[in-house]
């Protein structure tokens, strides 16, 4: 029959660890509460400033929006804008054929790549 091992002064076996576990659990809960408080209230002192800024900037934008609409209409009706817009449309029309060629080349390359990779 095997001998029973002698239990020396092993603190895990002879002493209760419930007090240490309780203290550790309380410390963890306290640190969790502290971290949540710090995240929500402590680290964000600018939240009040941010809320005031949003209100004031929204008020400013509401005042200036009609003025900007009038200014935008004036720019769109100007002769210089009309010339630039027409130049842009002409350039897009001139590049349309080349864009189709490039698209076709890309489709061919994709087809070949798919054949090589077998995916």
Query: How much helix is in the residues?
Result: over 70%
Strand content: under 5%
Q: End-to-end span in angstroms?
A: 67 Å
Number of helices: 4
Shape descriptor = elongated
Q: For this entry, what is the oligomeric state of its chains?
A: single chain
Mean pLDDT over all positions: 89
How many independent structural domains? 3
Largest sheet: none
SSE order: HHHH
Q: Which residues form runs of ≥5 with pLDDT under 50?
A: none
Which structural class should the secondary elements be placed in?
mainly alpha
- SS elements, strand count: 0
Radius of gyration: 37 Å
Explain what you see.
- The model has no long low-confidence stretch (mean pLDDT 89).
- This protein folds into 3 domains: 30 residues; 29 residues; 41 residues.
- It is elongated, with a radius of gyration of 37 Å.
- With 119 residues, it is mainly α.
Give the secondary structure arrangement, pairings included.
Layout: H1 11-14, H2 18-42, H3 47-77, H4 79-117
In short:
This protein is an all-alpha fold and 119 residues long. It has four helices and no strands.
Keywords:
mainly alpha; elongated
């Amino acid at each position: 029959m095997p001998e029973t091992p002698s239990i020396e002064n092993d603190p895990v076996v002879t002493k209760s660890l419930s007090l240490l576990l309780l203290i550790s659990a309380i410390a963890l809960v306290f640190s969790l509460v502290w971290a949540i408080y710090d995240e929500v209230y402590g680290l964000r002192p600018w939240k009040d400033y941010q809320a005031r800024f949003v209100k004031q900037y929204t008020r400013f934008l509401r005042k200036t929006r009609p003025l900007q609409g009038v200014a935008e209409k004036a720019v769109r009706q100007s002769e210089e804008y009309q010339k630039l817009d027409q130049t842009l449309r002409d350039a897009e029309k001139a590049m349309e054929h080349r864009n189709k060629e490039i698209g076709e080349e890309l489709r061919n390359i994709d087809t070949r790549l798919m054949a090589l990779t077998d995916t």
